[in-house]
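Good morning C.,

I know you're traveling, so I'll keep this short. The sequence:
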Amino acid sequence: MIQKVNRLTIFKNYFTQTGRFANEEIKNIREMANGCVDIYQKKLPKNIIVLQHGTKSRNTNKTRTLFINSNGTQNITEREKTLSEKGFKLISILKKYLPGISYHERQVLINTKTGKIEEKANQYSGLGRGSNTTVISYGNRESEFPATKLAGSIHPSIAHKIIFDKGGFGYNEMYIQL
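The tokens, ready to paste straight into the viewer:
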């Protein structure tokens, strides 16, 4: 059951190890947002607590989800939707697994007028895996390349470029874990 975090929820959390870790995160979230954010909590099997909160501004909608287990280990998922004045929507999803161990970031640029995806970018990184960044730019696009932050981080001289039949292209940049 999903519930909005209140004093009763915080009190119930004190009776479990996972709950105490969750209470610390709730405190940190409220301090960062000056107490002006709604936080939601859900308890899952195997003593996992999920916390979610979001912020909205004029053109941006951000949501952050934390998965906390009894060891205090967190997996974090951050979603952000940004609307531009030029008619594009940028969706960013960042997943951090056991912070500092690995992460996966995905960004998609959508033309709101046509509803078509113009650019996709993925970046994987982790211990023992190295780093891999892949960018696909579709043909007949109206935005300029690169439009996403991940695509802007590609080094064209290092990355492997692929040209597609329909006018699009892609880059793949890989670094091996040392």
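Safe travels,
E.
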